[in-house]
Amino acid sequence: xxxxxxxxxxxxxxxxxxxxxxxxxxxxxxxxxxxxxxxxxxxxxxxxxxxxxxxxxxxxxxxxxxxxxxxxxxxxxxxxxxxxxxxxxxxxxxxxxxxxxxxxxxxxxxxxxxxxxxxxxxxxxxxxxxxxxxxxxxxxxxxxxxxxxxxxxxxxxxxxxxxxxxxxxxxxxxxxxxxxxxxxxxxxxxxxxxxxxxxxxxxxxxxxxxxxxxxxxxxxxxxxxxxxxxxxxxxxxxxxxxxxxxxxxxxxxxxxxxxxxxxxxxxxxxx
Length: 271
What we know:
The structure is a single chain. The protein has helices at residues 3-26, 30-43, 46-60, 66-79, 83-96, 103-117, 126-141, 148-175, 179-192, 199-215, 219-239, 246-260, 264-270. By secondary structure, the chain is mainly α. It has a domain at 176-266. It is elongated.
């Protein structure tokens, strides 16, 4: 068989196969469609599975076969990497069949679909928060699950991403020299995530933001804002008396104290 004949044969088979599938979609033989769903599922032809199940499931919703068909539907969307639809179908499955042998997996995969959609830290973290909630719900329902440790690891990973997002968002205001907004964002990040590994840096950025905000303020507002800077200086020094930013912090203190007419020599002698 030469190459041209072979290509013609393959094209003919594909055209014939597509024609048969289109006829199947238009058919009113739902038993045949249901049987073909299983065939396509076993072959990994997930698009055909989901298209047929959109027609078949409403007809079999109240039957014993509905559970298996619903599971194939969720698994097929997962196989297609359509995580929005897969997550929705796994959630529907776990709600409809809470005592199914696949209920535990359905709950886990509901969270995993949000996990798969979690973006890098710079972007919106709605899916990340949904994944955390989903894994925590899974752990509350199935605390003894073999996948419990995996779920806990994913929660830790997602929480770290939320912390990083908070850090980057707060630091962005500082980098843009929007010091008033930076103070608010940095303070919120410190309150929400007090154990963050970036705590010292955030506290320094907040202190410096307060100082620069005061420096660029109207004269009538400066005393009040330099006082706020001084208060934040003491907060930083209480936690990090020998911190990584000691030189910059000392500079901020000296400048602030000079403006507020504080005798820094007395303070130095008392230390």
